[in-house]
Amino acid sequence: MRETSNNLWFKQNSQQPQHFRGGEKKVMKKSLSLLVAIAMVFSMFASVASAATSPAGAKLQELGIIQGDQKGDLMEGATWKRQDLAVLLSRLLGVEAEAKATAKSHTYTDVRGSFYDGFLSWAKAEGYMEGHSATRFGFDQELTYQQFAAVVLRALGVDTTGANYANVKELAVEAGIVTADVDFAAPALRGATYASVVVALDTEVAGSGQKLGTVLGLPGYEVTALAIAKTEQTNTREITVSFNKEVTAAEKADMTFEVKSGLVNYTVTAKWAENNQAVALSSTYLPAGEYEVVVKGFDAQKVTVADERPAKIEITSNSLQKADNQDLGIKLFNQFGKEIANPVLNVTVFNATKQATIAADITGKYDLAHDDFAKIDDNFVVTVTHSTGLSATKTFKIVAGSAATAIKLGTVAPLEGKVRVTAGDDALVLPIELTDQYGATIKLAETAKVTLAAGTTNFTISGITFMLSEADVVTAYAVDKDGKLTIDVDKAATLVINAVNPSTGATATTTVKVEGAPVVKTLQLSNPGVLVVADEEVKIPYAAVDNFNAAVVAKDIVIDQDAPIAANAVTFNSNVAFATGYPKINGKGELIAKFAPVANDITAYIYAYVNGAQVGQLQLAVKKAATPVKINGIKDVPLYFAVNAEAAFNEANITYLDNYNRTKTVAEGTYTVTSATPEVVEYDAVNEKFVAKAVGKSEITVNFTTGGTDSTKYVFTIEVVKADDIKSYAIKNIGTIYGKSDLTSASAHAKTVELVGKLSNGTEVALVQADAFNFVTTSDSTKVGVDGKKIFGLDEGTVTIAAYKGATKLAEQTVTVSEAAPIATTVAFNESEYTINANTTFVVNATGTHKVTVKDQYGVEITTAGLLASSDSAVATVSGLVVTKVGVGQTTLTYITANNVSATATLIVE
Description:
Elements: H1 29-42, H2 55-63, H3 82-92, H4 96-100, H5 117-126, H6 145-155, H7 168-174, H8 191-201, H9 212-215, E1 228-235, E2 238-243, H10 249-254, E3 257-261, E4 264-266, E5 269-272, E6 278-282, E7 289-295, E8 301-305, E9 310-315, E10 321-322, E11 330-334, E12 346-351, E13 356-358, E14 379-385, E15 391-397, E16 399-400, E17 406-409, E18 428-429, E19 432-435, E20 441-442, E21 447-451, E22 458-461, E23 464-468, E24 474-479, E25 485-489, E26 493-501, E27 506-514, E28 520-525, E29 532-533, E30 538-540, E31 542-546, E32 570-574, E33 584-585, E34 591-593, E35 602-610, E36 613-623, E37 628-634, E38 640-642, E39 646-648, E40 654-658, E41 663-665, E42 671-675, E43 681-684, E44 689-692, E45 696-704, E46 714-721, E47 728-731, E48 736-738, E49 751-752, E50 755-758, E51 764-765, H11 769-772, E52 775-778, E53 784-787, E54 790-793, E55 797-805, E56 808-818, E57 824-829, E58 833-836, E59 840-841, E60 843-844, E61 851-856, E62 866-870, E63 876-879, E64 882-885, E65 889-897, E66 902-909
Parallel strand pairs: 10-16, 29-36, 38-46, 48-56, 58-66, 60-61
Antiparallel strand pairs: 1-2, 2-6, 3-4, 3-7, 5-6, 7-8, 9-11, 12-13, 12-14, 14-15, 17-19, 18-25, 19-20, 21-24, 22-23, 23-26, 24-25, 26-27, 28-31, 30-34, 32-35, 33-34, 35-36, 37-40, 39-44, 40-41, 42-45, 43-44, 45-46, 47-50, 49-54, 50-51, 52-55, 53-54, 55-56, 57-61, 59-64, 62-65, 63-64, 65-66
Helix pairs in contact: 1-3, 1-8, 2-8, 3-5, 6-7
């Protein structure tokens, strides 16, 4: 047999870069496994005399990648036959059973017996192997180097099928698999691959940040240090950062992400992949350009972002039925393989049998039930084009509306985030596969939600009858545009579902175990670790477990203190009375208690019950209600004023000490403010502000409205300084502002420039803004415009603004302008808890008792699409911003913006 030198098969030049060659081809783990699998194949044949084991072969044998015969001989001169490669590849890739069971689809006539039919059909469908022609596989032939290279190239993503097979040598050399002097007609020898595989195991796979040995999970190649493998654009307005191994929860918690272009930071939302090895950073605005991605703890990554462009049209429907409401499933994909929403496409549906074009209905679907439009076995040609020149064509043979000759029903899985199917679950997916006599997939027709009448035990969709073993378990069903069937269940049962096509006799069966609603079995209550005082809320740590020994989340815990107690609700009893409405679960999922006032300190014995059974208990030392001791401080108020300057001063600026030595903020109406020298500093109690009247000092006394004495008061001094005492000025921080060419000073994003004065020691002085300076200048009026004392952004960049009084510049500050479109970044309710006894309307960014405030990344209130929702429709429902009272109880209100920024508040309905 002709000998071939091992080093001719794979290049092993030590000067080659340490990654797989082949340009920018993306090599998947499955393909890399195949590369090593091919080397393993050689170890399983012993058709020729053995040779001495090479060092490379010995290493691979030690790693368990290859194995010899019973004597341990690696048989490095062995060859092998073509059909056995398909069997061994399926085994090494872990899909032997699937490959063996594959229905025969190959048309090779030289295959002996039936054993290889499934394997060869699988290998052909997966693109690993193909025959010499449609009818000749090359059964029992030795595999040549060209055939071997073709298989390797296909696994690495290079097309070698059809006419490209003639280019295998050129493609293999270009990809770095072989040297140009390999005899491609010679039988491939296993020893020719060993040394190259050893080199490959120590080579970093491009784009993965890992050696091949690590990708394959081999001993000695374990990854210890976390590193970024690659950073790339994966969708429009999306950049994905991939790591070389799974990122732990602790590592994720410590990570922060920044995406910026020049000086502009873009707000991104991070979503981790299920395997925790990649995180997608998406933004509502990410224009084409060069970006820097900064992940805390790692070097900055450079990424080029491109605009979205259409790349492919697919007609996903596999059949057209002689029925109305036929959906072609046309989809337009971008260059990243992601579907483009709401594309504008030109669709032509042509009945070639009738030589007639069929028009779509107003929903974009096709009504084919009438014989004028279609008959069974008519041939249809569907053509779809896009303005970019993209096109797709597909032919269909019209089948009967109930032509399914095979039905498969899958297992109904629990809803996302749940571990079991439970009574009350809606939109459970009932997997169903329908195929016609031609093997084409048939979809159920799109069907809006249908509610079943009480006692119903069957329903029919698209000619398929679904028979239910028990009534009133399935209460509704629906089919979406993709043919996905969903059901609602409302009763615990073991339900058998039979799907039957009466026209063809096809049937299928599945069983669904519907559990009863989970009930709290144990409620572990813990001491809060803080002082518990009557008439004050206290957060009680808790952990709830249900009758399935699963943790119960806050939203699933119902607390009911009013008789009659609802079934499965938690109720609390205590020798110390709770305040009305307590205990309760707040919008954050915390258990909050409050005790009614007590005459003396007392121990509270608390018991929790569900359906009359005790599920938890706790003892708490409850102190008498707190009393104020003295005013002990002020905050956020200037102590130095220019003449005529003003500053707000109210309960938010005053703190007091209670009898438990805790500092708190005073309540409205519980304090008095007195100025000893009102002609110098006046306190305007109506408007809650200090007004500087004249140069000098005044003692300010703050005391309680009730019970105030000399021992409870707090005294501080405000000084009104002379103009000459103010030695310098500073502009209050403006930060980054939004810029757009059509903005004016009337825009909500315009900023008013304000000054503070400074004494010689740097202490700030409150000024009269109207008198402090006359006008503002900008270093670049194309980027920042000025109107009086207001500035507004016009174009991206940085400028210097300055405040002048006359010809004297008092202060300046650098301002950054960003063109990043305003998006919601914060949402907040004006209260953490609301109590209502009638229908209530909330307002967004407006004056009202029930208010939601939405602000953008510039700190400006913005109008944006949002949704107000109630967690319990039995307590309150929401339509728009109107909350409608339904029953008595507690629910969580959530306001969420279109870009997934949200806030919650507790709503108590009386």
